[in-house]
């Protein structure tokens, strides 16, 4: 049997482990921050009809410039964005990979603020970019001063700001984003994968794009939009940045089926986003209830909650899994992370976790 070590794999990939969030078939899956509400049936029928029509032309390559999809994404984002400022790919993971391929690479570095999204380090290693992490303030917040000090110290080619941050849920102020954009020499990416779950009135970094050609805002249809399985992420930035990403994408990277499905979902964006308020309410319910039980929930602007005060995270993770409830161990001491589910799923989680409450221990 050949093992990985026997292969002439790149030296910088030796000993690495792939992204590995458990995928298990359980009644209550609250571990990868999906929207756990299914797609409304009438929307699903429209998407099926559009995909069916696209299938009739699958003998041809799809529109390499995914023009109709970029138009729909620009309309959805608003902020007067024209389609020459829009990019998309198979999930925002691929959008981020395109950014690192175009602006990172050997001899270049990317800075993030740990703990943050685990794929950042993997995307860096896959593209041969040096991954640098700086720390956060108390409660995983990130002040302009802390962020700018790290940018000055490391002078990275790319800064990745996760807003709100995964896995902590922490919102990020526009002041911090502006300060980083002002201080950084290179590209600044704001990953807004969870921004639709932010408290009403929260401004997006899209409002900062004008006059900042090196600021990039990435989004995804995987979370609020309930479209994770379709794999559609997108980006707004200066047209020159989009030209840079064209240099590294594979031709026809968005299949005709993906484009048709995404257009169908965007044509029903109100219905697709209808559960966002309800999910936010369940998130608040989780935070309130966990605090009442004596855990330490961190401030969240997303559809998940990180909480501390767990004596033995692995034992609690396993005990919940034994009851069919899958949450996330993220390797932070004393902490676990849970996605806000439907009301019933959230109730199942809260009932199961109550047994481990510090207050009753
Ligand atoms: N950014 C963040 C912060 C995420 O948490 C995720 C998914 N977990 C992604 C990007 C990637 O999502 P997708 O590729 O499904 O768009």
Automatic annotation (TrEMBL):
<dbReference type="GO" id="GO:0000105">
    <property type="term" value="P:L-histidine biosynthetic process"/>
</dbReference>
<protein>
    <recommendedName>
        <fullName>Histidinol-phosphate aminotransferase</fullName>
        <ecNumber>2.6.1.9</ecNumber>
    </recommendedName>
</protein>
<keyword id="KW-0808">Transferase</keyword>
<feature type="modified residue" description="N6-(pyridoxal phosphate)lysine">
    <location>
        <position position="223"/>
    </location>
</feature>
<dbReference type="GO" id="GO:0004400">
    <property type="term" value="F:histidinol-phosphate transaminase activity"/>
</dbReference>
<feature type="domain" description="Aminotransferase class I/classII large">
    <location>
        <begin position="28"/>
        <end position="353"/>
    </location>
</feature>
<keyword id="KW-0032">Aminotransferase</keyword>
<keyword id="KW-0663">Pyridoxal phosphate</keyword>
<feature type="region of interest" description="Disordered">
    <location>
        <begin position="1"/>
        <end position="21"/>
    </location>
</feature>
<keyword id="KW-0368">Histidine biosynthesis</keyword>
<comment type="subunit">
    <text>Homodimer.</text>
</comment>
<dbReference type="InterPro" id="IPR001917">
    <property type="entry name" value="Aminotrans_II_pyridoxalP_BS"/>
</dbReference>
<dbReference type="GO" id="GO:0030170">
    <property type="term" value="F:pyridoxal phosphate binding"/>
</dbReference>
<keyword id="KW-0028">Amino-acid biosynthesis</keyword>
<comment type="similarity">
    <text>Belongs to the class-II pyridoxal-phosphate-dependent aminotransferase family. Histidinol-phosphate aminotransferase subfamily.</text>
</comment>
<comment type="pathway">
    <text>Amino-acid biosynthesis; L-histidine biosynthesis; L-histidine from 5-phospho-alpha-D-ribose 1-diphosphate: step 7/9.</text>
</comment>
<dbReference type="InterPro" id="IPR005861">
    <property type="entry name" value="HisP_aminotrans"/>
</dbReference>
<dbReference type="InterPro" id="IPR015421">
    <property type="entry name" value="PyrdxlP-dep_Trfase_major"/>
</dbReference>
<dbReference type="InterPro" id="IPR015424">
    <property type="entry name" value="PyrdxlP-dep_Trfase"/>
</dbReference>
<dbReference type="Pfam" id="PF00155">
    <property type="entry name" value="Aminotran_1_2"/>
</dbReference>
<dbReference type="InterPro" id="IPR004839">
    <property type="entry name" value="Aminotransferase_I/II_large"/>
</dbReference>
<dbReference type="InterPro" id="IPR015422">
    <property type="entry name" value="PyrdxlP-dep_Trfase_small"/>
</dbReference>
